[in-house]
Amino acid sequence: MALTHSLLAPGELSQQVGANAREARLAKNLSRKTLAQMTGVSESTIKRFESSGQITLDILVLIATALGATRQIAELFTYEHPISLEEIKQAGRVRGRK
């Protein structure tokens, strides 16, 4: 699988997401222990996530909910429809069954 448009490697992107979660937690003045109690996720899992970005999707959703970031998770793969005629021409063929 080629990632030609990404500026970050998958591992780097995961680490950035973990670092962002840490910043969000600290901005809300929450300790790892408090976040663990809010989510039902162990402190060690939160620590691992914040440092490496390694986590399951279910736990990511629990942490995002506690940190008020569910909108960002829900919009992760949304498709923005073209709005101009030029964008429609550039979009090409629409895939899928008819």
Automatic annotation (TrEMBL):
Pfam families the UniProt entry points to: HTH_3
SUPFAM superfamilies per UniProt: lambda repressor-like DNA-binding domains
Molecular function via GO: DNA binding
Domain of life from the UniProt record: Bacteria
HTH cro/C1-type domain: residues covered: 22-76
Name of this chain's protein: Transcriptional regulator
Organism field: Halomonas citrativorans
